Structures are given as C-alpha cells and as structure tokens.
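User: My instructor asked us to take a sequence, write out its structure as tokens, and then describe one feature of it. I'm not sure where to start. Here is the sequence I was given:
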Amino acid sequence: MSSHQDSLEWARAQDAADPLAHLRREFLFPERTPLYFAGHSLGLQPRRARESVLEELDDWARLGVEGHFSARHPWFSHHEELTASTARLVGARPHEVVVMNTLTVNLHLLMVSFYRPRRGKHRLLIEAGAFPSDRYAVASQARFHGFAPEDTIVEADDPLRALQERGKEFALALIGNVNYLSGRAVDMPALVKAAHERDCLIGFDLAHGAGNLLLDLHETGADFAAWCNYKYLNAGPGGLGGVFIHERHANADLPRFEGWWGHDKARRFEMDPRFRPIRGAEGWQLSNPPILAMAALRASMELFDQATMPALRRKGEALSGYLQGLLEGVGIEVLTPPQRGSMLTVRLHDATKLVEALRARGAVCDLRPPDIVRLTPAPLYNSFEDVQRLGALLRELHG
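Assistant: Let's start with the prediction itself. The structure tokens for your sequence are:
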C-alpha cells in the first residue's frame, strides 16, 4: 500500500469520484458509531424504510380489510412489487423468485421438495464450516427421512472434489456460496455441473452472497437457492428471505408443503379444496406475507435498482481491496482468499480487546471468539474515507 493511498486526502478524492457516493445519504448510521463495518451481519436502515412502513400502517388504519386490494401497495399482490428487483439482483427470471419467510424456514421447505433420498443415493453434502443453522437443518432432514445424520451428511473441505469423487452417493448438495466465517466464495457453475453430471440435485445458501456478489442463478443452473435479506440487503432485523427455484422445476410435480398463498391467485378466494400451485417459485408460498416487513425491504430494493449490482460489485472490490492493503500494512493477517465478496476475515490474538477498543472509538465490526474478526465495507453506504479511518484506528490500536 503506497503512502499516498493511506491518507485521508486520497480517500476523499476517491469518494468525490464515486458515482454511488450519494447513496450513503440514504442510510441511517447508529449513534456514536459512524464507522459501520458489520453489514455482513445486519445492514443499516434505509431512510425510506420508516416512511414505507408508516404508509402501510396508515393504510391499515384508513382501510382496514379493504387494504388487501385498495392500499397504495395492495397487500394481496404486495410481494409481486419485489419480484422484478429480486430477479435482477440474483440473475433470475421473474417466475423463478419469490420473497417469503426467513432463510432456514425456506431451506426446510425447499428440502422437502429437493432432498429425495433413495437406497444407495441418500447422502447429503454440505461444505465444512457451514453456518450452524444449515447444519441443524440438514441433520434434521436426514432424521426426518429415517437416516442417521452421522452416516448421511458429508462435510467436505472441497465440495467440488467430493462431488467429482463421490457424487453418485449424494441425493442433494446444499452449499453456502460465500462462507459466513472465512468469506470464501465458491465456483457455483463448476459445482452445479459436477452435481448434475452425477444425478445429484444442488442448492445454495446465498445468505452472504445475495446483494454482495454478481449472481446469475438462471444460467448457472442451480436447482434452488435461498437467502436472507437483512444482511447486505438491509431489510431490517429478522427481515424476510428470498427463494429461487429454477424454471425447469416450475411445473414439476414435486412434493411440497402447501398453503393457500401458493394456490392459483385467480382462484384463491374460491376456497377450492384442491391445491393448484402457482407456476414457479410463488407456488412454494404458504401464508399471507408480512406486509410491514415487505415495506421495509422495498425501501432497500429501490436503492439496489438505482445502484445496479455490477456497479456495486465494482465498488465493493475497490473498497475491500483498499481495506486489505491497509490491514496488511499494519501486520494484520487476512484469512479471506481473493475469491470473495466485500467481507474480509482477519485473525487477531487480542481480538476481544481490539474490537471493544474500536467500538469505543465509533467503529463497529464483528467478533467471532476467540480470535476472528469480520470487517465489511458495504458499497451501498460505506466510503473510502470510512475505510481509511478504520485503517488509521487499527494502526493505532494494533500497532
């Protein structure tokens, strides 16, 4: 890292030339913590979120039940307002995506359809170091089908190699496309190709990929994917998740758990006792969507549409590259490989003390005891100046 780059003046010059810099003003930063580097865990609140939610509360007060069809954003079709922007975000066709539920709930619903074990082909592949909730979900799915998790689940350091060498044993692979702890991104097309060549279905947990990486789910060919919207996508704590189901399964007679919101919209209020699924991902819906949560997400997705994912990825690469240079300049070990999104994982021997000291100086990051710290310059609202100021703090505190 050259000395002229490690300066406030240089960082401010980059911000002045940044075409996305104005979007920072669309977010609220926590009190006394202007340096926010925890967007991989919970994104900041868009300023428009309050107005968007209050609008729905006002319509509820004004219209009551009539709001289902007469609200400014009619509740009956409210989730459809998020479809186009969600499809653009993950590289899908509109009928392949839907916003619903939360991440692990959606993974269970998807595994009901896509984990179909049979004699000689019942194993379930996940990556080593997968997020614990994914591990709990696949273990419970194995038990639900009558298999012992310890004999069914394969946790692979190299999922691609595992598929190439043992793929005929697997009924399903469920892989995090960006590891929640290391930040490493996987080669999704290669994994899909290896799985499908061995008659194995494959899905992805995009919790740390959606809104972070450039995704092309339709062309990549994954059978399904699911993600949360409260990290990089700023939907708010416990915000709704998203689902992708490839269009080749749109009309498939797959087993699924059924609910009335997945039933043919044109006939939903006929109360037909026979379930007639909507074509595509919407057919996996169960219940009325939570409108207030959708309103908050809508405020954020409007900003993603303004920015576009290619532009956000370019800025994300620039910010994380700048941060890595500053970290290495003060002797901090970066664990995240070049195949990554915006998050950098570092190892620090005095991690707890340092994170507490950073917080006292107005910088928020994420501690994973005993010695792992995650840092994310989120391109929608972080700046080069943020990164330079964080680097200066780390130089002071770590040095």
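For the description part of your assignment, you could build on this observation: The first strand starts at residue 27 and ends at 28. Try explaining in your own words what that tells you about the chain.
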